[in-house]
Design a protein that fits this description.
By secondary structure, this protein is an alpha/beta fold. The chain has a single domain, classed as 3-Layer(aba) Sandwich (Rossmann fold). The chain is built from 7 helices and 4 strands. Strands 3-2-1-4 form a 4-stranded parallel beta sheet.
């Protein structure tokens, strides 16, 4: 594993007007490295795709093509650790003003000692405050 992949970055690959060079750099990194995501990641991605379809930003065919792309990438899902993860996620959400969803990405990056790839400014700031490296394109 080389980084924790926030859904905001993965979704930037589906929506051309989001992510730009940062999203492209993360995608290029995955050519030679693996990403890890929390168990809620596929739900976040599926929800954003469904909303994108409802709003006319994507067709069902585009969502299906994008889902196939994601399944072809070296992304592994980390199973939730019920006790430790719940407590640390709640602490991070409380102390850093994050949603529990965003806090679980930060918790994962802390536990694995991996950089976090995110387009979310609040999550980026929280990661930096916790001493977590944020992925930056070279």
């Amino acid at each position: 594993m080389s980084l924790v992949l926030d859904a905001s970055v993965a979704l930037s690959w589906a929506f051309d007007d989001e992510g730009g060079e940062y999203g492209t750099a993360v995608l290029q990194r995955l050519r030679s490295a693996e990403a890890v995501v929390p168990t809620l990641w596929p739900l976040e991605v599926a929800n954003a795709l469904a909303v994108g379809e409802r709003r006319g930003r994507l067709t069902a065919a585009e969502s299906a093509r994008y889902a196939r792309l994601l399944l072809s990438l070296p992304i592994s899902m980390e199973p939730a650790e019920r006790s430790g993860s719940l407590e640390s996620t709640l602490r991070l959400a409380r102390n850093r003003g994050l949603s529990a969803y965003d806090a679980c990405y930060l918790d994962l990056a802390i536990r694995y000692g991996l950089p976090l790839a995110t387009l979310d400014g609040t999550l980026r700031s929280a990661a930096e405050a916790e001493g977590v490296e944020v992925f930056e394109p070279s």
